[in-house]
């Protein structure tokens, strides 16, 4: 009996299907469109992918390897660090340092700029190594968020804050890794958004979601209702409208997970300012900027309530911003309420 005879029709057809496009092949094809490219930027993306594979492995084994729970320290934001926060931080730093293309890194887990061993590197990276890590002990999806800039200080010198504070519209790459039921790498370099799913049997990220487009409308809103009384009146009105329209509330508490669901299915993620935190909680450089660029590149929208997130001028490495991101129509509804609220307050004055 031949091998062919032991397979049914569906199995035989499956063997005839192409394996697909690996991340490495995709990067090479993109690089070939730029004859002057020397491969530094491509290698940087590969370094990020490598680090995410290692973090994915550690997340999958965390309950067996003692990586659950807190590390007994706090980060620059005053948040309790999880063991996996520090592990992911180390993995990404090592991968980016070993690659040689990155001159400096800003991470949520360190207060100052981290200089690599390569002052001749052309790029700097802002990074949230493990977003949503406080949820991890309960086996909830978490993620990594990254933002890449071409440095503006002279090559060979130590990068400064100016390299990181260029503004969101100067990003050359941005994306996230979602560690969930499957692990996905989603990123943009300014030519749309592409998603890659990790195949552990091959050890490769495979192109699974080419040219992602966020639905222009949706029926899901994602926010922390526990802070409702502290939100601006315009936000309270918007949430009331969502409830009146029968929208579904879906809030995981990990920015990557909430954003990813709404990117694929349609919806809006809201993290406004509050009475106690007027600037909100989301960090501008390594959370809001990359996600806002992804939203815009995928036909969505990202606003602060006073204008596009990408138009904000950053003034600190760990600065924060309110953010409303997702389907364009839903974000427009929020913006309209802020506009109406401002007009009303102006009239009263």
UniProtKB/TrEMBL annotation:
Domain of life: Bacteria
Domain Fructose-1-6-bisphosphatase class 1 C-terminal: 215-337
A molecular-function term among this protein's GO annotations: magnesium ion binding
Cofactor detail note: Binds 2 magnesium ions per subunit.
Alphabetic keyword roster: Carbohydrate metabolism, Cytoplasm, Hydrolase, Magnesium, Metal-binding
Example GO biological process: fructose 1,6-bisphosphate metabolic process
Binding locations of Mg(2+) 1: 108, 128, 130
Localization of this protein: Cytoplasm
Cofactor dependency: Mg(2+)
Known EC number: 3.1.3.11
Main location: cytoplasm
Record-annotated Fructose-1-6-bisphosphatase class I N-terminal domain positions: 22-210
Catalysed conversion reaction: beta-D-fructose 1,6-bisphosphate + H2O = beta-D-fructose 6-phosphate + phosphate
Binding site for Mg(2+) 2: 128, 131, 287
Pathway assignment: Carbohydrate biosynthesis; Calvin cycle
A GO CC term attached to the entry: cytosol
NCBIfam families: PRK09293.1-1
Similarity comment: Belongs to the FBPase class 1 family.
Subunit (UniProt): Homotetramer.
Protein name stated in the entry: Fructose-1,6-bisphosphatase class 1
Organism for this UniProt entry: Spirosoma montaniterrae
């Amino acid at each position: 009996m031949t091998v062919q005879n032991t397979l049914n029709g569906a199995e035989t057809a499956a063997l005839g299907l192409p394996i697909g496009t690996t991340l490495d092949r995709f990067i090479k094809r993109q690089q070939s469109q730029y004859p002057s490219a020397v491969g530094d930027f491509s290698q940087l993306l590969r370094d990020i992918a490598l680090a995410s594979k290692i973090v994915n492995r550690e997340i999958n084994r965390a309950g067996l390897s003692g990586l659950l729970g807190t590390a007994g320290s706090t980060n620059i934001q005053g948040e309790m660090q999880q063991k996996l926060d520090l592990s992911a931080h180390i993995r990404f730093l090592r991968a980016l340092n070993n690659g040689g293309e990155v001159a400096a890194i800003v991470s949520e887990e360190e207060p100052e700029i981290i200089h690599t061993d390569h002052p001749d590197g052309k790029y700097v990276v802002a990074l949230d190594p493990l977003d949503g890590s406080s949820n991890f002990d309960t086996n909830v999806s978490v993620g990594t968020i990254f933002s890449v800039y071409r440095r503006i200080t002279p090559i060979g010198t130590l990068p400064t804050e100016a390299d990181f504070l260029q503004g969101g519209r100067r990003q050359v790459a941005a994306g996230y890794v979602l560690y969930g039921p499957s692990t996905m790498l989603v990123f943009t370099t300014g030519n749309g958004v592409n998603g890659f799913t990790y195949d552990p049997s091959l050890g490769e990220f495979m192109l699974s979601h080419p040219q992602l487009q966020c639905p222009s409308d949706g029926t899901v809103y994602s926010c922390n209702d526990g802070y409702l009384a502290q939100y601006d009146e315009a936000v309270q009105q918007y949430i009331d409208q969502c409830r009146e329209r029968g929208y579904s509330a879906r809030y995981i508490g990990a920015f990557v997970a909430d954003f990813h669901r709404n990117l694929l299915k349609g919806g809006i993620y809201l993290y406004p300012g509050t009475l106690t935190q007027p600037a909100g909680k989301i960090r501008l450089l390594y959370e809001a900027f990359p996600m806002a660029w992804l939203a815009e590149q995928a036909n969505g929208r990202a606003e602060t309530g006073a204008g596009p997130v990408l138009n904000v001028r950053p003034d600190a490495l760990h600065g924060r911003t309110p953010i409303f991101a997702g389907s364009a129509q839903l974000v427009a509804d929020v913006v309209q309420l802020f506009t109406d609220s401002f007009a009303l307050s102006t009239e009263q004055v």
